[in-house]
Amino acid sequence: MSSPKSAYSIPTKKGKLDTHIFVVWVDNESGVLARVVGLFSGRGYNIESLAVAEVDATKNISRITIVTTGTPQVIDQIKLQLKKLVPVHKVADFKREDKNVIFKEMALLKIVAQKKKIDKCLKECKKFNPVILDKTNKSVVVQITALRREIDKMSKKLKPYGLTSTSRTGAIAMTRGAQTFK
Amino acid sequence: MSKLYTGAEIVFKCLEDQEVEYIFGYPGGAVLPIYDELKNHSSVKHILVRHEQGAGHAAEGYARSSGKPGVVLVTSGPGATNVVTALTDAYMDSIPLVCISGQVPTHLIGTDAFQECDTTGITRPCTKHNWLVKDIKELPKVMHEAFKVATTGRPGPVLIDIPKDIQFAKTNYTKFKKEKKLNGKIHNKFSENEINQLIDLISKAKKPVVYTGGGVINSGPQASETLKEFVRLIGFPITSTLQGLGAFPGDDNQFIGMLGMHGTYEANNAMHDCDLLINIGARFDDRITGKIDEFSPKSKKVHIDIDPSSINKIIKVDLAIVGDVNEVIMSAIKKINKKQNGLKDSNKQRISKWWEQIQKWRTKDSLGFINSDKEIKPQHAVKRLYELTKNQDTFITTEVGQHQMWAAQHYKFNKPNRWMTSGGLGTMGYGLPAAVGVQIAHPDKLVIDIAGEASVLMTIQEMSTAVQYNLPIKIFILNNQYMGMVRQWQELLHEKNYSESYSEALPDFVKLAEAYGCKGIKADNPDELDDKIKEMIDHKGPVIFDCHVDPNENCFPMIPSGKPHNQMILGPSDKEENKITGKGKSLV
Prior knowledge:
The structure holds two protein chains of two kinds. Chain A has helices at 32-42, 72-84, 115-125, 148-158, and strands at 18-27, 49-56, 61-70, 88-95, 101-112, 131-135, 139-146, 163-168, 172-175. Chain A is α+β, with helices and mostly antiparallel strands. The longest helix of chain B is centred in the first third of the chain and has 15 residues, at 52-66. Chain B is built from 26 helices and 20 strands. In chain B, 39% of the residues lie in helices and 16% in strands. In chain B, the strands form four sheets. Chain B has a six-stranded parallel β-sheet, with helices on both faces. The N and C termini of chain B lie far apart (70 Å). Chain B is globular, with a radius of gyration of 25 Å.
């Protein structure tokens, strides 16, 4: 058993990583996103995706949705550290596997190809509520909403059919049923 | 129509309403309107430092020793960046600071204007919160909220960045009323059930230990009184972190010394072998825990802290009580007195064997050292300093390094707020400016900075501040010509390759003192030490005391890193054993 020469302790085994979705309600003021993101980078937490927009214009509240991975202890820390930030009102956290929560991402896909191939693409997209936003005889821009890994799969699949450009949002989340998070 | 005030006037109106008496600062272009307004507010006195870092540390010393928030005023750009070290230091050690910084006028923000920097961006990770005030109407609200954030919950530094045009702009000011209700970021809602569980654990423990930290000090002087009552009531041994020293009397028999990397043998072994560990206002810092996997393996752990994010951050605990230390232990005392009257006697019997064990550990005399009659041993110097100052109310600050640990080990503190040291960040150069701040808060008390010659040179310019305001601080330098702690680690970890840890061209500290217009004293012989210390104490003005000590002395005991509490390296009297476990040395 050899130990490095250091005045600090040696890292111990890491636990199992879980994927969690944090929903954070914040005051929509300048610098607030930097505070939240800075907390993650400063403490070495990971951000898989991020989505943010104002949801209440009169109360000036923005809703930030962050997908992250960590050990249960780290997930707990993220939640408690977020709650300490002054502009943060409340923090909800859900496991990705949570059946009571809906997670969705949106993607815009630009396909440049012959009509035949474009039609094929649109067929593939059918499951994911496709909306055609723009169409020429050489190209199409289509909007789909799906889960992260479904969009991953779609981009892979559509590449050979002429998918040239993808733009994606981070995941957003909402609980099922009549209840809201207090 | 009510009277309109300028931003600069509003800054002072808020300071007056917050009952601020002193601000520590340094002027510059972007804060001139505030400095111009200073003359109209006689209740707020400005202390001119020589470097903005000094202002920050002085404010920390002021805050730590008085319990009031420290206020700092600096200019934009370099003024703000210079204060960053002090803000980070205050953030790590939970010291309430309010820093006001000037900023270039609003219309120049983002243009790389002269002395512009992104102050709120730079200080975001080292403050509890910060504000860039872009609208004069916001200023009064922001000022008062800043004080609230800095002083409530777990205290810490905040910063308000005020552009120069905002300092000139005018608005209304309505007098501030202190709210009784505290904001949503404060957590003091522990339940009766939790207190019952605590008492249940206390009454069952056979090998308990209480481990206290800076949170007790931050909870106010009353918390220390309550702690004393609590610990005497339950009869448990008590140890303390570096920041918690003074919350419980250092010369009391129930106190088993500081714990952690340079803590006593008895404290660290008690932590390792205990069956109940009660953490009050401490945060399981890595200098305390040693190897996490083997930290106190047999104990039930209780954690009392006002900051919920401290709980389970490093060590999983069995019972967490989130609340103000004073209130939590107060309700525990009440419960014990009311319901479990029998606990007092039966408990002491149950833990009597544990006390016997602790006495055995104590006989190791882990703080012992081999004294010399030729050279001054640094430990001896601190001990003499303690003996010669213990009869008066003395405030000690330190720099960072070996001298800091010797001060913590050999100076016994009996009251809270008497010990100011940079623990979390470990900022060399903290002690001298902190002493300035402490002396401002306690003009008639003896204030001593136990320093190292390397640390003190980092902020030595603040002697000029001490002389200007006639602050009789005593700078007691344990001069070993080395960055001692660096050298100690190089000795133990890097085969005695003393890379750059020797100071070649040290100044003559006596002449340096004279150059600043204060008194210099030099001692290099154990025989003259006492007389010279007395001379230092009796001198009415500031003193630099150059105490030449054995340059080869190391700080023991010590827990090598990656080792649990029960595997300590003891001092020179333990040399034989040391050689056998020679391998352990390289693991530090």
